[in-house]
Design a protein that fits this description.
Layout lengths: L2 H10 L6 H26 L5 H31 L2 H27 L4 H38 L3
Length: about 150
């Protein structure tokens, strides 16, 4: 089938699309994952000291804030095709991962060896640095494009 035929089938509605089912399944999986994270937080909140509770709450706030940014940035990229939104979306996913990983894998990592702990901290700090660069690139690009659009073409 030629590409022109595929687009004409999709435009006519003859092509079957699995995209809505994939989106629904992905959303349900993400909701289930977030629900388990919140339940795990609720179960461990009373078993840990007060300062540890604040750390866990901070990680959950960081996770949900970055997921909000990701859910805004990826549709904005799809709508405008601006790489700045893509960079912001990936940065948000990286920071959501770095917030989620200690919550999910924290209990299995802490009694680990010294080399395991070094790799853990190296991986989280390296991903944090990459996320910061992506956030900076996305924010600076959006700020520059907003500034040039305000002044108009020179």
């Amino acid at each position: 089938m030629m590409p022109a035929q595929v687009t004409s089938d999709v435009q006519n509605g003859n092509g079957s699309s699995a995209a809505p089912a994939i989106i629904i399944l992905g959303s349900a999986l993400i909701a289930l994952l977030l629900l388990t994270v919140v339940v795990a937080f609720g179960m461990t909140v009373y078993q840990s000291p007060n300062l540890s509770r604040f750390r866990e709450a901070d990680l959950l706030v960081q996770l949900f804030a970055n997921l909000v940014v990701a859910f805004y940035a990826f549709p904005a990229f799809k709508r405008t095709n601006r790489r700045a939104f893509l960079a912001l979306g990936f940065a948000a996913l990286i920071f959501a991962y770095t917030a989620l990983f200690p919550v999910l894998a924290g209990a299995s990592l802490w009694p680990g060896s010294r080399s395991q702990m070094r790799w853990y901290y190296a991986a989280t700090h390296a991903s944090g640095i990459v996320g910061l660069f992506l956030y900076a690139y996305g924010a600076v690009s959006l700020a520059r494009s907003a500034r040039t659009s305000d002044h108009g073409p020179a």
